[in-house]
Design a protein that fits this description.
This protein has helices spanning about 20-25, 50-55, 65-75, 80-85, 100-105, 120-135, 170-175, 205-215, 235-245, 250-260, 270-280; strands at about 35-40, 45, 95-100, 160, 185-190, 195, 230-235, 260-265, 290, 300, 310-315, 330-335. It has about 325 residues and is an alpha+beta fold. The chain has two domains: about 1-190 and about 330-335, no CATH class; about 195-315. Strands 4-3-5-12 form a four-stranded mixed beta sheet, covered by helices on one side. Strand 1 and strand 2 form a beta hairpin. The two termini are about 35 Å apart.
Length: about 325
């Protein structure tokens, strides 16, 4: 019945009996009839009780409810532009990063394989978010979701905790002005992620070159000095190597902005025109242009375990769109 009525992503769900939904609602102090969001593009009315219903369907525990609700509060912010994200031809996926004591309390993984499967909190919260945005919001292919190919990140959002225990730097939440004891959720939509691997560079200069080439590849939407945020999920091994070489997060962002550049002529044809607007200088096809318009658009989270791999998440908007706003990473405090 759930498959036939379009109430699932095409994979199994837990039947949301009234008893199970009532038990899920015990995970939040918010009222069941509170409207959380009118979800585009269908403008489906999402109440706290309906969030609990989809949390049951996705296999969540009641203790996950505050994280799910906070992620939805972030997704609905106008500057994120969810209506555009969910109807474009670009294969967007949701990325959620959690900071604070709640991550360990609910068993949210931050280390090896955190962005994959086998962790109930990570996977079920991601499944719940995708069910809500796709089913309540009515975003299904071929219309109104026009994603040309799509990818598995459309079906299950990527949810991780920041690996603060193995990070040489302050947590992302502290970087944004919160306390390390605050429970914070940060939401981003874009991708698909590009794996960055470097197993052979003898020193940090080689690793930096690998990162510079990876974040400036021509086939992404977010390049040519786009005025948007992009995300790097940096594993602790790379983070420690950068830190030991004297790179703070700020210095690493500045280095990438200065050095992750390619001639505008190496990108699609409109790059010189658009980079000229975003950088405020005359750009021709020979001018080296950065991926983003300013260093602070690189958002860095330490996630993962041992191994020389990281992920680069490009944004969804194309550089030729000069009307877009630049706040594509939304951070909010988790409530009860």
């Amino acid at each position: 019945m759930f498959f036939d009525k379009g109430w699932s992503e095409g994979i199994p769900i837990v039947p949301p009996t009234p008893e199970k939904v009532a038990a899920m609602l015990k995970g939040t102090t918010r009222k069941p009839d509170e409207v959380v969001w009118v979800v585009p593009p269908r403008n489906g009315v999402l109440t706290v009780e309906l969030v609990a219903t989809y949390a049951v369907m996705a296999g969540c525990k009641p203790s996950y409810m505050p994280v799910i609700l906070a992620a939805l509060d972030a997704l609905k912010q106008p500057e994120l532009n969810w209506p555009g994200l969910t109807t474009t031809t670009h294969p967007n996926g949701i990325l959620v990063v959690v900071n604070g004591p709640i991550a360990k309390k609910i068993g949210l993984a931050s280390g090896t394989g955190a962005a994959g499967g086998m962790y109930q909190a990570n996977a079920s919260i991601g499944y719940a978010l995708s069910l809500i945005t796709d089913v309540v919001g009515g975003s299904k292919p071929p219309l109104p979701d026009k994603s040309t190919l799509g990818w598995s990140g459309n079906m299950i959002a990527t949810v991780v905790a920041e690996n603060v225990d193995d990070s040489p730097w302050e947590p992302y939440s502290v970087e944004k002005g919160f306390s390390k004891d605050d429970n914070i959720v940060t939401v981003y939509a874009g991708g698909p992620p590009l794996n960055i691997a470097d197993h052979s560079s003898a020193d940090v200069s080689g690793v930096l070159r690998t990162f510079a080439d990876s974040v400036s590849y021509a086939g992404q939407n977010s390049t040519c000095a786009i005025d948007r945020d992009v995300v790097i999920l940096l594993n602790p091994e790379f983070a420690k190597q950068f830190n030991d070489a004297g790179y703070t997060k700020e210095k690493l962002k500045e280095w990438l902005w200065q050095n992750a550049r390619k001639p505008a002529g190496a990108y699609p044809d409109m790059c010189p025109e658009c980079a000229s607007k975003s950088l405020g200088i005359a750009v021709d096809k020979n001018t080296p242009v950065p991926t983003v318009s300013k260093p602070e658009h690189f958002q860095i989270f330490v996630v993962g375990g041992p191994g020389r791999h990281a992920q680069y998440w490009p944004t969804f908007a194309h550089f030729k769109d000069t009307t877009i706003q630049d706040k594509t990473v939304i951070t909010v405090k988790i409530k009860g």
